[in-house]
Design a protein that fits this description.
Layout lengths: L1 H21 L9 E4 L15 H4 L30 H5 L8 H6 L1 H7 L3 E4 L27 H10 L11 H15 L3 E6 L9 H9 L11 E3 L12 E2 L13 E2 L2 E2 L1 H15 L13 E4 L7 H14 L4 E4 L16 E4 H12 L8 H19 L4 E3 L8 H6 L23 H16 L3 E5 L10
Parallel strand pairs: 1-2, 1-12, 2-3, 3-8, 8-9, 9-10, 10-11, 11-12
Antiparallel strand pairs: 4-5, 6-7
Length: 454
């Protein structure tokens, strides 16, 4: 009998790693940590963004923003400009890079982090990098040769035979390897429904107009008139009316076939960098932004591409309404639960009479759990902060101006002071609830230290 029990124990210990590798749903209850690389850690100042990449020449004294400075304090180059506060901070750069993330892996490991979520890392002119200039290269300021990387990136298109490896790409793959050695996974954010004006296909469209082979990738309302060289009549569809974000064209069949092929090829590159059929050296999964902006048929085809390369990759849909319609074998394994965040804010942060009663809080949480069901409940990402939200510590400081379930607080109403000792106690209660509630808690970088402001 003892020999039988011993054999069963040995078998279970031996089989567990195999099961974890083969089973696509071994992500339940993992502790996630979301990082905006540009603002996380500046390991290599020599790859920092330069003025010409960020602001016009007439902006004097622009420089990389000082680390640990007051988020609300305007620097010299920000003062006296005809821009509001949030427009100014979009022009800030801190110089964070992927080597900085690698440097901090021991800290994350000690913190108990199991999954690192990187906000988009594609080459891009912005901080958040939602507006990609390419889908198959990491940003040139994340590597060790920013000038050389940018030249490579700008010279390439959808011809995969001419794709090169930038130092920024290698930095990302080094991060994947180092994280795996530390028993952590890395998941990357992607945005596929729009791009930046620097996107290689859009630059071709701007230059060649009707003669561009990528003209069917975009919606063009009006072509430029070559007879008026001093003006541009070029008009195109853009995301939320922002001309900096050209939107990809869709018809009854979804995206253009050439664009889909490019996105699928880029996806394969991140999943299996050396193309040897073994995804062990690739990214462990993706979180998809703006899911509802593209048709379900596209996501079903894209998820099949992902599953073919790495059946164990995790796919997270970033949806705003706690919807379960995007969960399933041909769609996503998990979603980001903003509904959970709203309930937590309504209960822990809002003042009476807007605060939820305990019974109502419990009932509405139960409804969320029942909506997801046992199959998905532990994979849902429960978050308090994120790249497009105020810091949770700042929300606590400004609880008196929260209303109607929104955390969009006008700057003139915002109290920029750090959290008091009593508010820090509230932060600890929030963290305790987040980390012990069923699901996968996701910490926004710095929130574990009580960071406030940006």
């Amino acid at each position: 009998m003892k020999a039988t029990v011993f054999f069963l124990l040995i078998w279970q210990l031996w089989a567990l790693p195999l099961a974890a590798q083969d089973h696509p749903y071994d992500w339940d209850g993992r502790v996630w940590y979301e990082i905006l690389p540009e603002r996380f850690r500046n390991y290599n100042p020599s790859n920092d963004p330069v003025k010409g990449q960020v602001v016009d020449d007439e902006v004097e004294d622009w420089q990389v923003h000082p680390w640990a400075s007051d988020w609300y304090k305007l620097q010299i180059w920000e003062q006296g400009r005809d821009l509001d506060f949030y427009q100014l901070i979009e022009q800030r750069r801190y110089g964070g890079d992927l080597l900085g993330v690698i440097e901090k892996l021991p800290y994350l490991q000690a913190l108990g982090v199991e999954v690192i979520l990187l906000t988009p890392i594609f080459e891009s002119p912005s901080i958040t990098k939602f507006d990609a200039a390419t889908f198959h290269h990491a940003d040139n300021n994340f590597g060790t040769d920013p000038k050389g990387d940018l030249e490579k990136i700008k010279s390439e298109n959808d011809d995969t035979t001419k794709w090169s490896v930038a130092t920024s790409d290698q930095a990302f793959w080094d991060l994947l390897s180092e994280a795996q050695d530390a028993d952590m996974r890395v998941v990357m954010d992607v945005v596929f429904n729009y791009c930046s004006k620097e996107f290689w296909a859009f630059r071709d469209l701007e230059e060649k107009q009707q003669d561009s082979r990528y003209k069917d990738w975009f919606v063009v309302y009006q072509w430029d008139d070559p007879l008026t060289p001093d003006s541009s009549e070029f008009e195109y569809k853009c995301w939320h009316g922002n001309r900096a974000f050209p939107e990809f064209k869709q018809d009854e069949n979804g995206l253009d076939e050439g664009l889909k092929k490019y996105i699928f090829d880029a996806t394969r590159r991140w999943l299996d960098p050396d193309g040897d059929g073994d995804p062990v050296d690739g990214v462990a999964g993706f979180r998809v932004r703006h899911v509802t902006a593209l048709p379900a048929s596209f996501w079903e085809a894209w998820t099949q591409i992902v599953r073919d390369v790495n059946p164990n990759a995790l796919l997270v849909g970033d949806v705003s309404d706690s919807s379960t319609e995007w969960l399933g074998e041909k769609r996503f394994d998990s979603v980001t639960d903003y509904g959970w965040r709203e309930l937590v804010i309504d209960f822990f942060i809002k003042d009476a009479p807007d605060r939820l009663r305990v019974s109502e809080f419990d009932a509405r949480l139960r409804q969320l759990r029942e909506r997801y069901g046992a199959e998905h409940e532990l994979r849902v990402l429960n978050l308090l902060g994120g790249v497009e939200m105020p810091r949770i510590a700042s929300l606590l400081r400004n609880r008196q101006v929260l209303s109607d379930g929104t955390d969009g607080v006008a700057r003139e109403q915002f109290d920029p002071r750090p959290p008091s000792d009593s508010l820090k106690a509230n932060l600890r209660a929030l963290a305790l609830f987040q980390l012990t509630y069923p699901g996968s808690p996701m910490i926004f970088y710095g929130d574990e230290a009580g960071m406030w402001g940006g």
